[in-house]
Specification:
Layout: E1 6-11, H1 18-27, E2 33-39, H2 50-60, E3 67-72, H3 76-82, E4 87-92, H4 95-111, E5 116-121, H5 131-139, H6 150-161
Parallel strand pairs: 1-2, 1-4, 2-3, 4-5
This protein binds 4'-phosphopantetheine (PNS).
Length: about 160
């Protein structure tokens, strides 16, 4: 990676999971600064507001140097360019992620060829973790410990189970 390389790790992060955190830890080894960028285009029905998601991410990456949190709307590559980032980091779990990720990476490359998408594999312990499934499991009373950071689990329980 080039000197003073800035990377963007984009996503919905509704909410951030331990799989995402694993990617952040891997990503920051490759770039000098990593910006976790939360999409705020509102077509998708989200459980947490962008502000709530930012607060959760900030809390769980607070002790990671050179990791920042931001939100963006519009095109990811435009936000990346505005931040002077040259690398987009995305995680791939199973083959099923590949097609969608390839489409996005190639579209983003067409829009801004100077920005490279880099795919990282999360640790196998996270290969089935997704924000969507975590929400579904907790909603129906399943155990999600170890799948999300503790402060996120507390907020999920409050929001979905009405716990104090
Ligand atoms: O975590 P997600 O929901 O899979 O993240 C998807 C995300 C935010 C990376 C993607 O939807 C995105 O980049 N949206 C911004 C709009 C954009 O740039 N669309 C064109 C992508 S080819």
């Amino acid at each position: 990676m080039p000197h003073n390389c800035i990377g963007i790790y984009p996503g919905s992060f509704d909410p951030i999971t331990n799989g995402h955190l694993d990617l952040v830890e891997r990503g920051i080894r490759l770039v000098d600064r990593l910006i976790i960028a939360i999409l705020s285009n509102d077509q998708k029905e989200a459980l947490f507001s962008v502000d709530e998601r930012m607060a959760m991410v900030r809390e769980v990456v607070a002790d990671m140097p050179n990791v920042e949190v931001a939100s963006f709307h519009g095109l990811l590559v435009d936000f990346a360019a505005q931040q002077k980032a040259t690398v987009i980091i995305r995680g791939i779990r199973a083959v099923s992620d590949y097609e969608y990720e390839l489409q996005m990476a190639l579209m983003n490359r067409r829009l801004r060829p100077e920005i490279e998408t880099v795919f990282l594999m999360a640790g196998e312990a996270h290969s089935f973790t997704s924000s969507r499934l975590v929400k579904e499991v907790i909603r129906f009373g399943g155990n999600i410990s170890g799948l999300v950071p503790r402060p996120v689990e507390v907020r999920l329980r409050r929001r979905l189970l009405g716990e104090p």
